[in-house]
Write a structure and sequence with these properties.
about 270 residues; alpha/beta; 6-stranded parallel β-sheet; 3-stranded antiparallel β-sheet; 11 helices; about 40% helix; elongated; binds ligand BV8
């Protein structure tokens, strides 16, 4: 188990980042946690509506985030997703999101490349100014008609009925445009993620438990292609022993510190 990372580990990681020209970053719920959004597995029922506390307490990703759960109880699942959607809309990007947008600005030009692969469905990276975002697991902000597959962007207020009726086909309903367990990731997103992992010279995994595939496998693809690997997480994960630099701490603090150490001449 890596020791909690000190300044020397941060300095080493910052040196690698300063030398990198083609960077790929994978983010998970631990980045948005700094904006007050619950993580997927460390969730607490703290401020849920009373009738959903029980649901969230025994929350199991394989239970609710699946087509089977939606088919069995579309009203309950869409109510839960609409509650999460409104939380995401109310959330603001944090310094970790902004640090990644800054990193893209530094590398995204002719001098290099930057790809942000996110498992998050809250669109906070885009709100922070990130432009080249690959949404591996879709978006909770956008919904789609279950019959036509056409996307629908709901207004920033609660749906009035559950499951919400589709505006695209009479009698059909809407579902969140996320990837549920057992569903394939969007082909374009998958292709973009593999291309980024195969071509980067530095891969950074931030705020993810690294247990969901295929997203958790991109680090190994990058590593196999000779990329330097960095992890930022509050606690050790299954990849912590495999990365070149494991930085333990909050993403909203570590990411800005990492960029300062890498790029601020006066910080060295
Ligand atoms: C696929 C969207 C194939 C929805 C999500 C059995 C049956 C079916 C499938 C499988 C199975 N066994 C294995 C599988 C494959 C499965 C999988 O990997 N399962 C796991 C659980 C074993 N994968 C899939 O099903 C994928 N599809 O394989 O399709 C296929 C191919 C062709 C045709 C048909 C099918 C689809 C996976 C996508 C599922 N959807 N989300 C929604 O949001 O509701 S996944 C869900 O977990 C999240 O959305 C997130 O994307 C993902 C990973 O979670 P994390 O982001 O890592 O969050 P987590 O809470 O776990 O961890 C937070 C981390 O942050 C922690 O490490 C914590 O320490 C850290 N942290 C917390 N606070 C901070 C912090 N770090 C820093 N700072 C902080 N402040």
């Amino acid at each position: 188990m890596p020791e909690s990372s000190g300044q020397s580990e941060l300095t080493a990681a910052a040196g690698a980042l300063a030398r990198a020209r083609r960077v790929a970053v994978l983010t998970g719920a631990g980045v948005s946690a700094e904006s007050g959004l619950r993580t997927f597995r460390g969730a607490t029922a703290a401020d849920l509506p009373a009738d959903m506390q029980a649901l969230w307490k025994e929350f199991d990703p394989m239970r609710l985030a699946t087509p089977e759960a939606f088919d069995a109880d579309p009203a309950m699942v869409t109510r839960w997703y609409d509650w999460r959607r409104l939380g995401c809309l109310a959330a603001e990007p944090n310094p970790g999101h902004r640090a990644l947008a800054t990193l893209e600005g530094r590398l995204g030009g002719a001098s290099g490349s930057f790809h942000l692969l996110t498992q998050n469905v809250d669109r906070l990276h885009q709100k922070a100014g990130s432009r080249n975002v690959v949404e591996l697991h879709g978006s909770i902000i956008e919904w789609r008609c279950v019959r036509t597959g056409r996307a629908f962007l709901p207004p920033p207020e609660p749906f009035e009925s559950f499951p919400p009726p589709s505006p695209h086909a009479a009698g059909a309903v809407l579902r969140p445009n996320v990837v549920w367990f057992g569903e394939a990731l969007p082909e374009a997103a998958l292709a973009a993620a593999y291309a980024a992992a195969e071509s980067c010279d530095l891969f950074m995994s931030v705020g993810t438990s690294s247990v969901v595939y295929p997203a958790a496998g991109f680090l190994d693809v990058a590593s196999a292609n000779g990329a330097v690997t960095i992890e930022v997480n509050r606690e050790p994960t299954p990849i912590s022993e495999r990365v070149d630099h494991c930085l333990l701490g909050r993403s909203g603090e570590v990411l800005p510190a990492l960029l300062r150490a890498a790029f601020d001449a006066d910080a060295r």
